[in-house]
Design a protein that fits this description.
By secondary structure, the chain is α+β, with helices and mostly antiparallel strands. 39% of the residues lie in helices and 14% in strands. It has five helices and four strands, in the order αααββββαα. It has helices spanning 9-20, 30-46, 51-65, 115-123, 129-132; strands at residues 86-91, 94-101, 104-107, 110-112. A four-stranded antiparallel beta sheet has the order 1-2-3-4, covered by helices on one side. A hairpin with a 2-residue loop joins β3 (104-107) and β4 (110-112). The longest helix is centred in the N-terminal third of the chain and has 17 residues, at 30-46.
Length: 148
């Protein structure tokens, strides 16, 4: 099977017909056809958006058709790292890789309960772990040089 990016407009329309079981809209450019097909292939292989996100997007689309302003989606208060994620930080010329595991963080063969413990093991001093690994914004500086 050819990669989608290698297909011309006609071949993309044929793929659309096979995938969606209807003709592709005539106004779609090759670039848009390619992006929509790629999304659908990926969603079929790995799963589509969750139900809550689909409902939210449908609400936005209905509101836009009715002339309403588009709502700003809420931002999650906390970010969670999934097991298997890797955090990379260079310190004193050495690259450190920390792997998120169930119940903590693995570094150099030891599992730690918090990122701050890992940062302390790496640096020998007390650090805010999320800040050390770039997961939190650094404090902004005012023109006078102090923290804002």
């Amino acid at each position: 099977m050819s990669a989608l990016g290698d297909l011309d407009l006609h071949a993309l329309r044929v793929r659309w017909r096979k995938l969606f079981r209807k003709e592709a809209p005539g106004h779609l450019t090759r670039s848009l056809l390619l992006r929509i097909l790629a999304y659908r292939v990926q969603a079929n292989a790995f799963g589509d958006l969750d139900r809550e996100t689909l409902r939210f997007l449908d609400r936005i689309a209905r509101g836009r058709r009715a002339g309403e302003a588009t709502p700003v989606p809420p931002v999650a208060e906390t970010r969670t790292l999934k097991a298997g994620s890797q955090l990379v930080r260079e310190h004193d010329g050495v690259m450190h890789r920390v792997t998120v595991v169930e119940g903590g963080y693995a570094w150099e063969g030891t599992t730690y309960g918090s990122l701050s413990e890992v940062a302390r093991a790496i640096t020998g001093t007390r650090w805010n772990g999320p800040r050390f690994f770039g997961l939190r914004d650094r404090p902004t500086r005012t023109k006078a040089g102090g923290a804002a």
